[in-house]
C-alpha cells in the first residue's frame, strides 16, 4: 500500500473504505457479492441478527466515490432489508424493455442541462416577451 493510499484510507470515508471499515469487515463481515460497478456487499458472519437492530447488518464498500445512487435496484432492495436473497444468489434476467441502472449524474459532467441553461452549450434562444433590463429614469 502506498503512503497516499494509506493516508486517504485513514482520513477520508467518501473515497472508499476507511481503516475502521476495513478492520470491521475483516473481523465481522461475510462477502455476499459484487455488482456491475465493482461495489462489494457484505453482511454479518453467520447471518447473525444484531440485538440492537433486530435484523442482520449489511453494508457496501463502494468502488471509488461513495455515492448511494450507484447501488443498482436489486442490491438496494437487499441492503434495505426488502429482500432476503441477494442478487448474487438469484437468477434474475431483466426484461428487454428495462434499461441498465445508471448512477445519478447530478453535479457531474454528464448532468442534464436544459436548453437555455447557463451551464448548457450554445446560446439561449429569444422568447416572446423576453426580459428587459430595468434602467433608472
TrEMBL record:
Organism: Starkeya nomas
Region entry Disordered, spans: 87-126
A GO cellular-component term linked to this record: respiratory chain complex I
Entry-linked Pfam families: NDUFA12
Matching InterPro entries: NDUFA12
Biological process according to GO: response to oxidative stress
Source taxon at top rank: Bacteria
Name by which UniProt lists this protein: NADH dehydrogenase
Amino acid at each position: 500500500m502506498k503512503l497516499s493510499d494509506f493516508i486517504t484510507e485513514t482520513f477520508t470515508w467518501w473515497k472508499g473504505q476507511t481503516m475502521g471499515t476495513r478492520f470491521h469487515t475483516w473481523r465481522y463481515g461475510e462477502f455476499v457479492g459484487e455488482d456491475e460497478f465493482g461495489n462489494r456487499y457484505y453482511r454479518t458472519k453467520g447471518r447473525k441478527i444484531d440485538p440492537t437492530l433486530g435484523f442482520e447488518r449489511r453494508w457496501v464498500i463502494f468502488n471509488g466515490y461513495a455515492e448511494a445512487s450507484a447501488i443498482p435496484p436489486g442490491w438496494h432492495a437487499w441492503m434495505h432489508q426488502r429482500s432476503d436473497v441477494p442478487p448474487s444468489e438469484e437468477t434474475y434476467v431483466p426484461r428487454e424493455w428495462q434499461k441498465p441502472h445508471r448512477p445519478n449524474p447530478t453535479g457531474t459532467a454528464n448532468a442534464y442541462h436544459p436548453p437555455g441553461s447557463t451551464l448548457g452549450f450554445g446560446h439561449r434562444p429569444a422568447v416572446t416577451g423576453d426580459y428587459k433590463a430595468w434602467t433608472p429614469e
